[in-house]
C-alpha cells in the first residue's frame, strides 16, 4: 500500500506571483497546492497604494483558472514615504494584511525600498498600534558587508533596535537562512515569527557552485553553510509554532536567470509542498508537517485554518526540466529530479 499523509490544505505565507503573462503562467502551480498566499508587492512599479493592491488582487483573481480555489492576501510595499494613515486605511478596508520591508537595494525590485529603518518609524508605530504585521526581508545592504553575513547583521543592526522601539509589533522574519535568525526568532515573543523556503531546507551554498555556476540555485537571501541549513531544518521541523511555510517562489524567465547577470529568485511553486514533505520525512517529523504548512501561519495572522484536507502520497514524481506555459520558459526548483512525494489531485 502507498504511504499517505493527509493534512489541512496549506497556505503559502511568502510568494511572488509577478504580473501579466508571467502571473497567468505561474498562478495555477500555487493554486494547485495552496488555499491562500501572501503575495509580495515587489512589482515594477511596486505596490505602494491600497488602490494598486486592490487592482493587483483583481488581476490575480481574474487570471485564476475556473474551478481553482485560491485567495491572494495582499501586502503593501514600504518606502521612505509610506504614510501611517494610508497604511492603516488599507488594512482596515481589508485590502492588505501586512506590509513588506525591503531594505533599499537588498533584492529584486527593491530600489524603491526603505533607505533607513528610522524613516518609517511612524508607519511602524501605527502598524504596532493596529496589529498589522511587518514582513521583513532581513538583510543589510552595505557593500562592505559580506553577502553571507547580511542576514545575521540585520538582526543586531535593524531588528533588535526596531523591536525595542516597538515591542508589540507583529514581525515576520521572512525566508530565514541562518542559525542566527532561527535563534533570534525562537528567543523572541509570540509576536515574532519566521517563514522558511524549501530551498533553504534542502540546499547549502555548495549548490550554487557545484560543477560551475548554477543560476537556478541563486536566490536572496543566498543559501548559507551547511550548519545553517541544519539549524533552519531543526527550526522548521521542531514544532515551536513560530516557523511556518513561505515558499518565496520567485519566477524569473530562464533567459534572465541564465545570463551574465542572472536574477535572484528560485521558482519552486510547482512542487513546493512535496519538497517540504521530503524534509519533514527525513527529519522524522511528518506528524508536524500540518502545523508548519497549515496551522501556525493562520494562527500568527489571526485567520482560521483551511477546512479542506489534501493528501500527499509517497509516490515518485519527476520535476520537469522546464515549464513552458507562458511567454518565456521557466526552470523550476529541482528541475529534472525526482520528488519522493506527490500531492494527490483532489
Ligand atoms: C525575490 C524576487 O525575485 O522577487 N528574489 C529572491 O531571490 N528571493 C525577491 C526576494 O524575496 O528577495
Ligand atoms: Zn521573496
Report the uncertain regions.
Answer: none
Structural class: alpha/beta
When the domains are counted, the total is 1
List the bound ligands.
N-carbamoyl-L-aspartate, zinc ion
The CATH first-level class comes to: Alpha Beta
**Level of helix content?**
25-40%
Q: Label the CATH architecture.
A: Alpha-Beta Barrel
- Output the radius of gyration: 19 Å
Could you please describe the fold and organization of this structure?
- The chain is an alpha/beta fold.
- It has one domain (4-343): Metal-dependent hydrolases (TIM Barrel, Alpha-Beta Barrel), CATH 3.20.20.140.
- Helix content is 35%, strand content 15%.
- The chain contains twelve helices and 13 strands.
- The strands form three sheets. An eight-stranded parallel sheet has the order 2-3-4-5-6-7-8-9, sandwiched between helices. Strands 1-10-13 form a three-stranded antiparallel sheet, covered by helices on one side.
- The longest helix has 16 residues, at 150-165.
- The protein is globular, with a radius of gyration of 19 Å.
- The model has no long low-confidence stretch (mean pLDDT 97).
- N-carbamoyl-L-aspartate (NCD) is lined by residues 16, 42, 107-108, 137, 219-220, 248, 250, 264-265.
